[in-house]
Task: inverse folding
C-alpha cells in the first residue's frame, strides 16, 4: 500500500508540474487539444512503468511469466493455426520478444508497462480539462493497479486509446482497423465497435435503450449469458461457464463509486447538453457504458464484468473533471474537486487493501543485474 501511495503522490506532483510548465495549446472549440510531451510527463510514464513492469507476482503475473518462458518460436505458433479470437497478436509478440529480443521477462513486462502508461496518460492529458484530477482517478478507480494484473487486456486497452481520435474525426476505416488490432491482443477489445453509436448526447434515446437492454439481461441473466456463450463458442471463443456462473458478485460500493459521473451527467443533463462537443458526449457515454457493464457483475462473474468495465472507464476520468468545470464557478470548482478527491482517496485506500501482501517486485539495481 505504501508503494502505491508514494506513486500517487509523485504522479500528482509531476502532473501539476506538467500542467504548470507545459500547458496544452488551445486550438479551437471543435478540435481536441494537442499533446506536448515534456520532462515531467515522461518522468511520470517512466516511474509508473518501472513500478508496474518490475513486478514478480500479483494476480495473473505468475501465469504471464510461465507463458513467456514457455513461448514457442513465432513460426511454430503460427503453424499451429492460431484462433483469431484467441489473442494471437499477443502470443506472436510474446514469442518474437522472447526469442529475438530478450528472454528476460522483466524486460518484457517493462516494455509493455511503459507502452500502457504512455498510452493511458497521453489520452488523459490530451482530453482532460484537469489532468491532475484525471491522474488521481486513474489511480483511485483502479486502472493503474489493473495494469499489474492483466497484461494482455491492458495492451488491448492501450491500443484502443489511439482509436478515439480517429472516431472523433469520423475516420471509420482507421477506427475499426485499430479496434481490430486491439482485439487481436485481447478479444474483449471488440466492445469498442459500438462506440460510434455513442457520439450523440448522453441520456437520450440510445442511452435509454442501452440501459433497458442491460436491465433485461440482469433479469434474464442465466438464459441470456448462456446464449451468448454458445454463440461465442460457434465463433471459436471459449469462455468457461464456471468463470461466468461463479456466484461472485461485484461489491455494491464499487458500483456506487463508478456511478458518480453517469449520475451527475443525468441530473444536470439539460445544463450540460448545450455545452457538449462530440468528445464530451463520447467520454460521458463511455462512463455510462462502464457502469452498465459493471452492474452485470452484481449477479455473478464479478471478475469478468469488472475487467470488461475498464475498457470504457477511462472515459469517466475525462468526463468528471469536465462536468465539474462546467457546473461550478471557477472558485467553487476547486472546493468541489477537493471534496471529490478526498472521497476518491477514501475509496482507493479501501480498494487496495491486501495489495502489499499479493504484490512482490524487484528493485532497479536488481533489475540491472538481471541484464548481465
Result:
Amino acid at each position: 500500500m505504501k508503494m502505491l501511495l508514494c506513486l500517487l503522490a509523485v504522479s500528482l506532483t509531476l502532473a501539476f508540474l506538467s500542467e504548470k510548465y507545459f500547458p496544452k495549446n488551445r486550438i479551437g472549440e471543435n478540435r481536441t487539444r494537442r499533446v506536448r510531451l515534456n520532462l515531467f510527463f515522461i518522468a511520470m510514464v517512466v516511474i509508473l512503468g518501472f513500478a508496474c513492469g518490475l513486478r514478480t507476482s500479483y494476480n495473473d503475473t505468475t501465469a504471464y511469466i510461465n507463458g513467456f518462458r514457455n513461448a514457442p518460436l513465432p513460426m511454430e505458433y503460427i503453424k499451429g493455426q492460431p484462433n483469431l479470437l484467441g489473442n494471437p497478436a499477443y502470443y506472436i509478440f510474446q514469442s518474437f520478444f522472447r526469442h529475438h529480443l530478450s528472454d528476460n521477462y522483466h524486460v518484457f513486462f517493462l516494455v509493455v508497462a511503459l507502452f500502457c502508461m504512455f498510452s493511458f496518460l497521453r489520452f488523459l492529458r490530451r482530453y482532460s480539462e484537469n489532468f491532475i484530477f484525471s491522474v488521481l482517478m486513474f489511480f483511485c478507480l483502479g486502472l493503474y493497479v489493473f495494469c499489474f494484473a492483466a497484461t494482455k487486456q491492458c495492451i488491448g486497452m492501450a491500443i484502443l486509446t489511439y482509436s478515439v481520435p480517429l472516431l472523433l474525426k469520423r475516420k471509420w476505416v482507421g477506427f475499426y482497423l485499430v479496434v481490430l488490432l486491439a482485439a487481436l491482443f485481447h478479444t474483449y477489445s471488440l466492445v469498442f465497435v459500438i462506440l460510434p453509436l455513442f457520439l450523440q448526447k448522453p441520456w437520450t434515446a440510445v442511452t435509454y435503450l442501452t440501459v433497458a437492454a442491460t436491465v433485461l439481461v440482469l433479469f434474464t441473466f442465466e438464459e441470456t449469458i448462456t446464449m451468448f456463450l454458445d454463440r461465442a463458442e460457434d465463433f471459436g471463443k471459449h469462455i468457461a461457464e464456471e468463470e461466468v456462473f461463479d456466484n461472485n458478485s461485484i461489491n455494491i460500493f464499487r458500483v456506487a463509486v463508478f456511478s458518480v459521473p453517469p449520475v451527475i451527467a443525468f441530473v444536470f443533463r439539460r445544463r450540460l447538453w448545450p455545452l457538449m462537443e462530440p468528445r464530451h458526449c463520447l467520454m460521458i457515454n463511455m462512463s455510462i457504458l462502464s457502469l452498465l457493464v459493471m452492474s452485470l457483475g452484481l449477479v455473478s462473474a464479478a471478475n469478468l464484468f469488472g475487467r470488461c468495465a475498464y475498457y470504457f472507464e477511462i472515459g469517466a476520468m475525462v468526463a468528471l473533471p469536465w462536468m465539474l468545470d462546467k457546473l461550478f464557478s471557477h472558485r467553487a470548482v476547486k472546493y468541489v474537486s477537493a471534496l471529490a478527491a478526498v472521497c476518491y482517496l477514501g475509496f482507493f485506500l479501501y480498494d487496495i487493501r491486501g495489495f502489499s501482501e499479493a504484490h512482490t517486485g524487484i528493485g532497479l539495481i536488481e533489475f540491472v543485474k538481471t541484464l548481465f
User: Anything to note?
Assistant: The CA atoms of residues 333 and 339 lie 10 Å apart. The mean pLDDT is 91.
